[in-house]
Amino acid sequence: MKPSLLRGLSTGALLLALLPLSSSTTSAPTEKPFSYYLAPLQGPKPDPAVLAQFGLYSNATLQKLIDTKGQQMNKVSDRPGDYGFTIVDSPVINAFATPDGHVYFTRGIMAYFNNEAQFAGVLGHELGHITARHGQKQQTRSTISSILLGVGSVVSPGLVGRFAQPLSQVVGLGLLKYGRDAENEADVLGVKYSTKIGYDAANMADFFQTLQRTEAQSGAGGIPTFLSTHPNSADRYTRVKGLAAQAKQQTGSAKLAVNRDSYLRSIEGLPFGEDPRQGFVEGGVFYHPDLKFRFPVPSGWKTQNSPEQFQMAEPNGKALIALLPAPGNSLDAAAEALVTQLKLQSAQASRTTINGFPAVAIQADQVGQDQSGQQGVTARTLTYLIQDGQSIFALIGLTSPSAFGTYSGTFSSVAQGFSRLTDASKLNRQPEKIRIKTVKTATTLGAALAANGIPTSRREDMAILNGMQLTTKLPAGTLFKVVGK
């Protein structure tokens, strides 16, 4: 959760923040009028919903790079348009294009590129999805939750689906999982566009190998990556290498750019991994250094943090708790908005104080049709609205009516544990960052990492980050990446 997103948010934003929790529901895809598919693509400005979910990464150098190269490709593409290009503040290794004509790269994927040619190849690939109109041909409900929010997948579909009913009118962000045909076509276009603006597209194939290594390293339960929405194939590396060789031959140029050193220098200081300033879990407690609060996480519960919310789910998906910014400038206004917008009934509210913070506790039901079509109470909630100065936070506990007695105590204990963060070691926690080092004398990557204090347990990860093996020989003067404070 980012401080900047916790002030002045409307009730609509509060509701939107709950939408990712319905990732495993069986609701119908969002319908679009036929004219939507015929309309010109226009996406020069980033979607506010995307920025609310991921956060904007403010880095003038890297934003200029993606803008400049994106517009160069736009001019030589098969369908020039009013497209936009944005870097978002997510540690996940991903890039995606929305059907409105906007390309997003995460700071996570920027960390794993090792030259401009790799960057340009993936940029061309994403632009290819737009110019080939893959998103408009395959428009479905948003899959943003499957990309970042692992918690949503373990929550009971019936439980969260009913709670999210008021959100059914929200348009999906259109992050799609493409099939092999669409991926192959985007690869062809990525090679074509990046070669046309002067880059050696063979490096795009090398990056796909890096992605495969990160996927293997994280395991089946790891953080979803680019490959979650861009399925790989065994022959992809060979096929892209062949396409790049053909494209290079057609240009007649023996000097297509790679630009390794200039790219590496451009990502010096790039945050790597989760940013603890936006909140982190440690020892069964969620800490937020910038907002200066803490509260307990139930033992064994799964957690996921994003710029707009922090959520926790019982391991079997029987209950969840979400921390969200609440609307309104008073507890009364926030309570009224919450009950109205979430269509809660039989609400019982009581004032209380939690570790010095004014608060309101609200128990309520949501009434609707269950999965069998019967009318009745489909979800029961216990929400604590907690005021900290000008900010109001909502800790929303949600479960089925039959399980409420089991989990209401957990909902209460989490809220009662909300307190001021004063521990200096937590308040001063800083993110790790990419640091660019130079090899003094010829050596191997493994030896260079060891000489820079990288522990043995992290060296394979650093080899993947560099797109090398630990045994790769580095001539004197070679730049390479390490990670540190």
UniProtKB/TrEMBL annotation:
The Peptidase M48 domain, residue ranges: 66-242
Highest taxon in the source lineage: Bacteria
Alphabetical UniProt keywords: Hydrolase, Metal-binding, Metalloprotease, Protease, Signal, Zinc
Entry EC number(s): 3.4.24.-
Transmembrane segments: none
Coiled coil regions in record: none
Cofactor: Zn(2+)
Signal peptide range: 1-28
Molecular function in Gene Ontology: metallopeptidase activity
Keyword Signal (UniProt): yes
The protein's name in its UniProt record: M48 family metalloprotease
Organism: Hymenobacter cellulosivorans
